Amino acid sequence: MLFADVSGSTRLFETKGDVEARRLIAAVLDALSIVCVGHGGRVIKTIGDEIMCTLPTAMSGLLAACDMQRKMSRDINFVRENLAVRIGFHHGNALEENDDVFGDAVNVAARMTSLAKREQIVSTAATVNGLSGTRLPETRSLGRARVSGKLLPIEIVDVVWQEDTSGMTMVQSAIRMGDAAPAGAKLTLRHRGKLIELTENSEPFMMGREVSNNLVVEADWVSRTHAQIEYKRGHFMITDRSTNATYVCIGQDPELRLHRDEVHLRKSGSISMGQAASANTHDLIHFNAE
User: Fold this and answer.
1) Range of the domain at 40
2) For 105-135, what is each residue's pLDDT tens digit?
3) Which of 16, 52, 63, 155 fits a disulfide with 125 by CB distance 3.0 to 4.6 angstroms?
4) Could you tell me if 180 and 216 are in contact, meaning their C-beta atoms sit under 8 angstroms apart?
5) CATH at residue 264
């Protein structure tokens, strides 16, 4: 199973307008469809700015994902518009019904896509570890990530699809095993005297105004589901999902305004939902990463 998602499509609609944005996204999905079919695959469906494909083998999925990224990086029409995709894939059994596909492999592949960044391919280590051949691209460990329905986090990898990686910087390259958080990683949160400990095996930790969240902060400026903390790609990451942004202070660094984006929680610092920390001292969430 393979999913490919057009990165930054929301901004594309804001800057290009509905008609042009739809045209550009359709052109990307058409190009990805051609690559999929060229590797013996089948397009199951397109969902907005995303394409869902099946491919006959793990190797064909791997090669198709690499060719999709290369197509995006070489096509002048896509390069000119700064278009890019993020791709996730996983090899496993799935159930086909009414021209759609269901099952664990679909869920895992979709999760890999959600973990991928712009111009990145993420897969499970189980998918690529058994592959061999001269055309096999390099992979680099991204540590472990939690997948819905799985008891424990699973090992995931970044596929280095670029044919020439000599110019890649450490920021551009994926997290190597030595760079990942050590086994037993822990994040401690403190809010109004309440102490919360998260580990690499913890479920995603939700924060917001609604009572269904793991941490509830009742304030008008806090969204119902405001932010999420999750262990992925070898680190504890906080993701903002709010209207009014999340403000994060890390060590002595300047306060970071996070809006519909994510950041790695390192060392120690504070999290303020909906307002800058200076205006929200009563509901600050203090954190310490180990």
Assistant:
1) 2-179
2) 999 999 899 888 889 999 999 999 888 876 7
3) 155
4) no
5) 2.60.200.20
